[in-house]
Write a structure and sequence with these properties.
It is a single chain. The protein has 600 residues and is an alpha/beta fold. Helix content is 56%, strand content 8%. The strands form three sheets. It has a six-stranded mixed beta sheet. A hairpin with a 2-residue loop joins β7 and β8. The two termini are 55 Å apart. InterPro entries: GmrSD_C, GmrSD_N.
Length: 600
């Protein structure tokens, strides 16, 4: 829990007006406004249809505890507070458009009360400052100012904002305007009575790290708080305060990093991998590794120590990191590019810290880079199937590997790196036996993702230019090519399957079905899994679609050649095919030639 914080329950009117001079500021380079129509709809319904509404909690950083005019940074809650302010703006405009003469005399005092308070909510009294300041990202603050200009509370200084009505902030404002379009004053008053009395919890902390720890402990269910946002805010503040860069220059430089890594989750991974990759440096050194939990604290120390170094070094290293997260868009040798794609498919992300070190410090050794990536693919195939080393140990293994390489960088080579990695991972000659047994066993139930990867790599080794297929293409986040069980998984199969597999012996079929169903010899890949499904074997072999395209085991895949050549499918066929595929798998993913000679 954060060490220094205050918690206050406030209603939605007093949030903005209790301290007439307080401003709510979304850090200039925090994420942009992302709520959509469904969010606005839920927000409006919750606020206006419930007599007592609780808006949740917001987390604010107050670095001006003794100031009478504090700027409170909104760290968690910007989507809700921005949306609330846009609703207020829409109501303010609607009130101004109502003919006051049509309002009953006894209601006019309420009309004046609400109009005055809405103006206080949106703008600091007798000031040219708006109550809320949005981030600069995606022109959010410019668009917000234009909306305030439209309702008469702000004189726009930006004459180039011609397209702001096509962007999300104005769409939200227009959404609320449409909701209020036919409302008379009585209806508006009812809405404001409900909205103004809604409650939220305001939590003030004194630093970015306190905000992050508090957010984590609250397990908030809103938009996830990004460590990147907090680190970026701290970094920009230091750069500007120390007169190293002005706001615009800092932002333009940081945009280079965003262009390389545009996803918030990947940005956070990059910050972790960067820290762990270069923690041996004098500018960075820290005994503990970076994790999601301590990332803010580590970077605050790093920024305090040398903000100029970390700012520009992060931007520089993001160019390298892009090669790992988007290899298809990077200028790499084709073999290295394919190796990184394979590494991503087999979930080799824990090695990124080491690769960041290798690609940054040994830029001219492309052959070494390619060989190491190829080896890492094999390493992760084996690790994920035998579940060793444990996932919790991987980060430290690669950190230790970096230290070993840095201590011996004059003699760095493929054999040295591999030997050190295997030593740190506590692999010995028996690991190939364990790997073989896992492949021979029920590989699908052990790890279906590894099973699919292995099958795809076997198939890809037999591709030519003429028969190449993208086995990793997806539609709606699902692979087009999926694992197909030749003997169906259904435990209650067609009697013809029982007749073929065990000559009609149902109890025997149930036992052998459990034994063989998930073995590699019973698995293939297909783009028509749902079509083949529980079909009989002879139907699966020669199936065609409505256009007479071959979609069964006669589709030309190497993996299906042996299956298509069989007239029946029995335990004997599965055993024979398993032996063949196990041998191919061991050959493709062996660490070295000597390993295969050690097999019993």
């Amino acid at each position: 829990m954060a060490s220094d914080y205050t918690i206050t329950e406030v209603d939605l009117l007093n949030l903005f007006t209790e301290n007439e001079n307080v401003r709510y500021v979304i850090p200039k380079y925090q994420r942009h406004y992302i709520w959509k129509k469904e969010n606005w709809e839920d927000f409006y319904s919750d606020l206006t249809q419930n007599e007592r509404h609780f808006l949740g909690s917001i987390i604010l950083i107050n670095k001006e505890r003794n100031s009478r005019n504090p700027n409170l940074q909104i760290i968690d809650g910007q989507q809700r507070i921005t949306t609330l302010s846009l609703l207020y703006a829409a109501i303010f405009e609607r009130l101004n458009n109502i003919n006051k003469e049509s309002i009953p005399e006894k209601e006019k005092k309420f009309y004046d009360y609400y109009l005055v308070n809405l103006e206080k909510v949106l703008k600091i009294d007798k000031s040219e400052k708006l109550r809320l300041e949005l981030s600069l990202t995606k022109q959010n603050n410019d668009d917000y100012c234009e909306i305030m200009n439209l309702i008469g509370l702000w004189e726009s200084q930006n004459q180039s904002q011609t397209r702001f009505k096509t962007r999300r902030l104005y769409s939200a404002f227009q959404f609320f305007k449409d909701k209020l379009n036919d409302c008379e004053f009585t209806n508006i008053r009812q809405i404001l009575d409900t909205v103004f009395t809604g409650k939220l919890i305001s939590i003030e902390v004194g630093s970015n790290s306190d905000a992050f720890l508090l957010f984590e402990s609250l397990n908030n269910r809103g938009e996830p708080l990004s460590a990147t946002d907090l680190i970026k805010t701290k970094m920009f503040s230091e750069l500007i305060d120390k007169l190293i860069l002005d706001e615009d220059s800092a932002f333009k430089n940081w945009e280079k990093l965003i262009e390389n890594i545009d996803d918030y989750k990947l940005q956070e991974k990059f910050l972790i991998h960067y820290y762990n990759a270069f923690k041996y440096k004098s500018e960075i050194f820290e005994s503990t590794k970076a994790t999601k939990t301590n990332l803010i604290t580590h970077y605050e120390k790093l920024i305090d120590n040398d903000v100029n170094f970390v700012f520009y070094d992060l931007i520089e290293k993001s160019v390298v990191y892009k090669k790992f997260i988007a290899p298809e868009y990077s200028e790499l040798d084709e073999s290295i590019k394919q190796g990184i794609i394979d590494l991503n498919h087999i979930s080799g992300i824990p090695s990124y810290s080491f690769l960041l070190y290798l690609f940054s410090n040994f830029k001219d050794k492309s052959e070494l880079q390619g060989d190491i990536i190829t080896f890492l693919v094999k390493f992760f195939v084996r690790r994920h199937l035998i579940d060793y080393p444990k996932v919790r140990d991987l980060d430290q293994i690669f950190i230790d590997l970096i230290k070993k390489c840095e201590d011996n960088k004059e003699h760095i080579c493929f054999d040295y790196i591999v030997n050190e990695l295997l030593t740190l991972s506590r692999y010995d000659g028996s690991s190939i036996n364990t790997f073989r047994e896992k492949i021979k066993g029920n590989i699908y139930s052990e790890n279906k993702d590894v099973a699919r990867f292995i099958l795809c790599k076997i198939e890809e080794t037999h591709f030519t230019r003429e028969n190449w297929k993208n086995l990793w293409a997806k539609k709606q986040k699902k692979y087009n090519w999926t694992i197909e069980h030749i003997l169906p998984q259904n435990e209650k199969p067609n009697t013809k399957w029982v007749e073929m597999f065990t000559r009609g012996d149902l109890p025997k079929f149930k036992n052998l079905h459990e034994k063989y169903i998930h073995k590699i010899g019973n698995l293939t890949i297909t783009a028509y899994n749902s079509v083949l499904s529980t079909d009989l074997f002879e139907e699966k072999r020669t199936k065609v679609d409505g256009q007479n395209n071959r979609i069964g085991y006669n589709n030309g895949l190497y993996l299906n050649e042996k299956v298509f050549s069989e007239s029946v499918w029995t335990p004997e066929q599965i055993e024979e095919r398993s032996q063949s595929l196990v041998a191919e798998t061991l050959e493709i993913f062996k660490f070295n030639d000597a390993e295969l000679r050690t097999l019993n």
